[in-house]
């Protein structure tokens, strides 16, 4: 019976064949232990000299790291294994013998590993991170589809910037200027006016010259937009979504979390309600904690976000930021014209902002005024203004950064390990 490592539990005490690669091996005079992987998981294959032909045993002992092979054997329960099973090998058929595999079981430097990222993702820990990322993606679709959202695909090539910044990758679109998208939000708003509740999920690009452990040049964003939803209701949905992601990772990635030595009690504690703290109150709290250099109107940096999250020891919404810090499309607060109805969700354990969201301006004249005040070309945003011209409604949305969320839930320090092929300030290879 041909199967995969992930499915061997269905075949206890039966003989199966698995296509696999040799991740590592060790042997004594009488037994060879083969650490096998097939992309779905890892399992130990045991070759006992007294139970197989001498040629097979010698072949097992001489296998090289990352050689590919078909392995046939009897599936056994193994309580000592975190996986729960091992394979008593009865036959081997080498497909390709690898030579000089560069990533050995010894320690390697980060730059070396990044240069060999195409091979590094085969390792156990990197495999675990990719599986957790996959669970978050699956859970995202499950959550939003269960809530009646429609998936909308926004363009990657755009003629304008949602954030109104210069941190854009410029390209030529035949005889026009174009940019790589830094957000699907504006298009998602158009989708919400047609389909009520939508979400986009795609790559975004920021030409930000940052080298911090939280930043990538190319990253993936989940961006829901919701018609007839005001600010507080949007926060409720964000909270429910994040709690659902944490629950699904904890439920379905137990082996991966153990391999990464993630404190699962931290994930179990991710439950609502999350504190909702205004920027003003957060600033006062920071002053109490000794951050005397930050004044009203300053943005919060990594140390400030970390201090706020540690104070509450759970995700915390920071709301009503100064208008001067936020993009042009955010709805002003009804009682103050110097703050907007927005929120950043700050993750604990030093992972920083994972969600940014707001209620959007739905008044035509006000939005036009803000576009002009920010020095943006009115003609490029005319289609966006049209959304406020033909049946405008209150609406809200947010964006969750996938890689930061993967890093937080998996306990990985740097976002470069949360995507298969990261694009960093100094890295476009491989």
From TrEMBL:
Residue ranges that the Swiss-Prot or TrEMBL entry lists as coiled coil: none
Subcellular location per the Swiss-Prot or TrEMBL entry: Cytoplasm
Assigned keywords, A-Z: Aminoacyl-tRNA synthetase, ATP-binding, Cytoplasm, Ligase, Nucleotide-binding, Protein biosynthesis
Pfam families cross-referenced by the UniProt entry: tRNA-synt_2 (PF00152), tRNA_anti-codon (PF01336)
GO MF annotation, one: nucleic acid binding
Record bears the keyword ATP-binding: yes
A single GO BP: asparaginyl-tRNA aminoacylation
Catalytic activity: tRNA(Asn) + L-asparagine + ATP = L-asparaginyl-tRNA(Asn) + AMP + diphosphate + H(+)
Primary localization: cytoplasm
All copies of domain Aminoacyl-transfer RNA synthetases class-II family profile, residue ranges: 130-430
EC number: 6.1.1.22
InterPro entries in alphabetical order: Aa-tRNA-synt_II (IPR004364), aa-tRNA-synth_II (IPR006195), aa-tRNA-synth_II/BPL/LPL (IPR045864), Asn-tRNA-ligase (IPR004522), Asp/Asn-tRNA-synth_IIb (IPR002312), NA-bd_OB-fold (IPR012340), NA-bd_OB_tRNA (IPR004365)
Enzyme class: ligase
PANTHER family per UniProt: ASPARAGINE--TRNA LIGASE, MITOCHONDRIAL-RELATED, ASPARTYL/LYSYL-TRNA SYNTHETASE
Family statement: Belongs to the class-II aminoacyl-tRNA synthetase family.
Subunit and interaction comment: Homodimer.
The protein, known as: Asparagine--tRNA ligase
Organism: Alkalicoccobacillus plakortidis
Annotated gene: asnC
């Amino acid at each position: 019976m041909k199967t995969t490592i992930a499915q061997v539990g269905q075949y206890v005490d039966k003989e199966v064949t698995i296509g696999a690669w040799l991740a590592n091996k060790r042997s004594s005079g009488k037994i060879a232990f083969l650490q096998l992987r097939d992309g779905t998981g890892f399992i130990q294959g045991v070759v006992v000299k007294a139970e197989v032909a001498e040629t097979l045993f010698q072949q097992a002992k001489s296998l090289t790291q990352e050689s590919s092979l078909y392995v046939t054997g009897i599936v056994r329960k193994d309580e000592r294994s975190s996986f729960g099973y091992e394979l008593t090998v009865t036959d081997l058929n080498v497909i390709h013998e690898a030579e000089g595999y560069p990533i050995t079981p010894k320690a390697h430097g980060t730059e070396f590993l990044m240069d060999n990222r195409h091979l590094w993702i085969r390792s156990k820990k990197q495999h675990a991170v990719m599986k957790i990322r996959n669970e978050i993606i699956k859970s995202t679709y499950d959550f939003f589809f269960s809530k009646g959202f429609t998936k909308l695909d926004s363009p990657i090539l755009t003629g304008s910037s949602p954030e109104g910044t210069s941190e854009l990758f410029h390209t030529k679109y035949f005889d026009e200027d174009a940019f790589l998208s830094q957000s699907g939000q504006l298009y998602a708003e158009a989708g919400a006016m047609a389909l009520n509740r939508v979400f986009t999920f795609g790559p975004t690009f920021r030409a930000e010259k940052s080298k911090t452990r939280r930043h990538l040049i190319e990253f993936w964003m989940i961006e829901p937009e919701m018609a007839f939803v005001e600010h507080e209701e949007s926060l409720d949905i964000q909270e429910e979504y994040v709690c659902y992601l944490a629950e699904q990772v904890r439920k379905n990635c137990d082996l991966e979390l153990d391999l990464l030595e993630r404190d699962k009690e931290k994930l179990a504690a991710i439950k609502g309600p999350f504190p909702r703290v205004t920027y003003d109150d957060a600033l006062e709290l920071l002053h109490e904690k000794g951050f005397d250099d930050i004044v009203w109107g300053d943005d919060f940096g990594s140390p400030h976000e970390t201090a706020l999250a540690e104070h509450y020891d759970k995700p915390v919404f920071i709301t009503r930021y100064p208008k001067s810090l936020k993009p042009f499309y955010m709805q002003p607060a009804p009682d103050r014209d110097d703050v907007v109805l927005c929120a950043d969700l700050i993750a604990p354990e030093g992972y920083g902002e994972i969600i940014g969201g707001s209620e959007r301006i739905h008044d035509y004249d006000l939005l036009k005024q803000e576009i002009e005040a920010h020095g943006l070309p009115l003609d490029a945003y005319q289609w966006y203004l049209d959304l406020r011209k033909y049946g405008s409604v209150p609406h809200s949305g947010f964006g969750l950064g996938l890689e930061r969320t993967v890093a937080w839930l998996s306990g990985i320090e740097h976002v470069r390990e949360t995507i298969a092929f990261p694009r960093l300030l100094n890295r476009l290879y491989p």
